[in-house]
Write a structure and sequence with these properties.
29% strand, alpha/beta, Ubiquitin-like (UB roll), Translation Initiation Factor IF3, 2 domains, 4 helices, 8 strands, 177 residues
Length: 177
């Protein structure tokens, strides 16, 4: 791809003389939607002092709109920004336990989980079994269930404790306010 220039904003849509179709369906404010020859459509656009922009090039015949192209690009960019701002990014925080985690460490990690949930993040807690500690699976499950019950007023359990390899997971998400 060496030697090729990056596409310009104008390359996003075919406008005015760059439209290659012989007939186009024209839409726009104050214009009767109909199929016109390209020369008639360009004349209509010029008469209105606006651009003929190919909106749907794959339609038969292609759909063109008579609008101010720069304003159209600005509004599209604005819509994209608005859509992006409405999206919520889900953050997953992980908390790691050992099968024999004592009470103080458990409470410390529980407080962190509460803080994460209040910030709107999901929490994925897991017990990591090293070597022969896998024989304490029940202890790990009890620990995770105790963790879930400690977060009862802040979160709802998304996934019950599940063993995958040497890890046992539980997933909790914040309650809606």
């Amino acid at each position: 791809m060496r030697g090729q220039r990056p596409p310009k904003k104008e390359d996003l849509h075919n406008i005015n003389e760059r439209i290659r179709a012989s007939e186009v369906r024209v839409v726009g404010e104050g214009i009767e939607p109909a199929v016109y020859s390209i020369s008639k459509a360009l004349a209509l656009a010029k008469e209105a002092g606006l651009d003929l922009v190919e909106i749907s090039p794959n339609a038969v015949p292609p759909v063109c709109k008579i609008i101010d192209y720069k304003k159209f690009l600005y509004e599209q960019k604005k819509k994209q920004k608005e859509i992006k701002s409405k999206q919520s990014k889900v953050v997953v925080k992980e908390i790691r336990f050992g099968p024999n985690t004592d009470e103080h460490d458990f409470n410390f990690k529980l407080k962190h989980a509460i803080k994460f949930l209040e910030e709107g993040a999901k929490v994925r807690a897991f017990v990591f079994f090293r070597g022969r500690s896998i024989v304490y699976k029940e202890q790990g499950e009890i620990l995770l269930l105790k963790f879930a019950s400690g977060l009862e007023e802040y979160a709802k359990v998304e996934m019950m404790p599940k063993l995958e390899g040497k890890r046992m997971f539980i997933m909790v998400s914040p309650k809606k306010k």
